[in-house]
Amino acid sequence: MVLQRLFRAVIMGPPGSGKGTVSGRIAKTFGLEHISSGDILRANINAKTELGLLMKASIDQGQLVPDHVISRLILRDLKAIPQSSWLLDGFPRTVTQAEALDDAYSVDTVINLNVPFHTIKERLTSRWTHLPSGRVYNVDFNPPKEPGRDDVTGEPLVQRDDDTPETVTRRLKAYETQTEPVLEYYRSKGILETFSGTETNKIWPHVEAFLHKKLSVVNKGVA
Ligand code: AMP
Hints:
Layout: E1 8-12, H1 19-30, E2 33-36, H2 37-46, H3 50-60, H4 67-79, E3 86-89, H5 95-104, E4 109-114, H6 117-124, E5 127-130, E6 135-138, H7 165-188, E7 192-196, H8 200-220
Parallel strand pairs: 1-3, 1-4, 2-3, 4-7
Antiparallel strand pairs: 5-6
């Protein structure tokens, strides 16, 4: 689909809700730039930048990094692509971050993946990640073609330091207390669209149909 005006979207959902996978599909199907705050932070850690080294401990422990740090990082990246339609994944995660985003851009739609916490706990502890790209696999229901290797590059997959059971519990708690208020923030603006389920492949067709409809309206200039 070719967009006639810029489209700005946010995807939300607890860690392990399939956000990364759905974001990749949205980016590919609708030509949006996919910006993942977690991938950006992990790239900084991998490259051993000053910021990455400073933030590694909080991330490994499943705590959120400070609002001003992540907001500056993401807004700087968005500023570098002024003519692109984008999809933000993992940001905003607090109401303060949502307000910082609002001050700079008007968000068209917020896609919320609503997946039960017990499904997520099972999923995250069997998740393997290709760190350079952020591609994720699950040994149970989405295994790589060759065990332990990324399908695209053949590079090794790793289990994230923050995907251990205790850290997963802490990340879900952080989601509940700090990120759920962001859903309310967007609901009150009338731009929140919630998709519920336990399987990404069953949720995806609904997200795709919604965006097709939404973007055809954008293209007609009605929205
Ligand atoms: P994710 O890959 O989105 O689950 O992010 C991994 C970790 O990066 C999180 O558990 C946080 O420690 C940190 N992080 C990512 N995005 C944000 C954000 N918007 N605000 C604060 N911390 C974040």
